[in-house]
Amino acid sequence: MANPASLTSHQVRLAARPVGLPTPANWQFTEEPVAEPEDGGIVVKTLALSLDPAMRGWMNEGKSYIPPVGIGEVMRAGGVGRVVASRHSGFAVGDTVAGSLGVQTFARFGGADLKRAGLNKIDLQLGTVTQWLNVLGMPGMTAYFGLKDVGLPQAGETLVVSGAAGAVGQTVGQLGKILGMRVVGIAGGAAKCAWVVKELGFDACIDYKGGAVKDGLKEHCPQGVDVYFDNVGGDILDTVLTRINRKARIVICGAISQYNATEAVKGPKNYLSLLVNRARMEGMVVFDYADRYPQAIAELAGYLKDGRMTSREDVVRGGVDAFPDTLLKLFSGENFGKLVLQLADE
Ligand SMILES: NC(=O)c1ccc[n+]([C@@H]2O[C@H](COP(=O)([O-])OP(=O)(O)OC[C@H]3O[C@@H](n4cnc5c(N)ncnc54)[C@H](OP(=O)(O)O)[C@@H]3O)[C@@H](O)[C@H]2O)c1
Fold this sequence. Notes:
Elements: E1 8-14, E2 27-33, E3 42-50, H1 54-58, E4 78-86, E5 96-100, E6 106-109, H2 111-116, E7 120-121, H3 138-151, E8 158-162, H4 167-178, E9 182-187, H5 190-198, E10 204-207, H6 213-220, E11 225-230, H7 234-241, E12 244-252, H8 272-276, E13 280-283, H9 293-306, E14 313-317, H10 323-332, E15 338-342
Parallel strand pairs: 8-9, 8-11, 9-10, 11-12, 12-13, 14-15
Antiparallel strand pairs: 1-2, 3-4, 3-6, 3-15, 4-5, 5-7
Helix pairs in contact: 3-4, 3-9
Bound molecules: NADP nicotinamide-adenine-dinucleotide phosphate.
């Protein structure tokens, strides 16, 4: 067992709540010695952190599906780490674990914290550290349950997914193809669109930065849209609403175009299309499916292994001090694939 007392944890804490895009004033950098684990607890060294659009929401005051990060608290973040000290019979030094580690180089958990942090041992035979933050992690679970349980996909139907080159979007589209759907992505820029079609096997991808989403939908979804997996909200949601079929299902997974809004969130103007088409729009939160993650992980790991699915992670290497700038990549679209901050080598 490493001697935790000789270790220092470097942390990023929430210093103030942002208005609009986060700025350096929203963050505070701290360091503290790592104490020995209590009886039933463990200490984990962070290897890699998942950077998620949801982090922006967790910085806000107010009621949500999860309490906000408190001022002065370590910023919440999912991650993969290695157990460096253990007084828990279920975890040994050297085990690789995934869960809510926070933006810090070492995380110390008491026995009661382990469940709250959703900490589980992971098998690196099934996927790499970064794949465990992508297809086999929270974004993959979101894609799997959002599409299957809320989107209710049928072979032969047309699926449209926005944020198509991102973490959730890449897995949604590939699953749609495996299920026999026609799959059309929406993403920002020619490079992302080319990758989505050539490498992921989508039938088409519309570059929304080119501005022609409506024309693209007409061209690439000649039979209309049966399932829309929405990661972005705003104008793109409104445009897709004009092309849906009778009994269409719209999965409200996220609305990244609205997360930094300083004015009221832009709601869909075209919602009466739901009425005309007897369609429905339903929100989903991945954590509701936690009991079924093992089933989804087994299936998705199988697709990675047999080559039916591929994954792309955008890995930034740096210390926790790189966190604030790296997070902003999500909102400028600079990330290409699942955004990961790698703090340490395996
Ligand atoms: N409901 C849940 O349980 C759950 C769980 C996980 C994630 N989510 C949501 O799923 C969505 C995708 O998350 P992710 O982790 O997969 O992120 P991601 O797609 O890997 O990264 C974010 C992407 O959003 C796009 N984007 C940024 N600003 C935009 C704008 N104004 N309009 C359109 N696109 C914009 C950018 O791609 P382009 O270059 O293509 O613009 C950027 O790369 C987010 O809304 C997130 O909150 C929900």
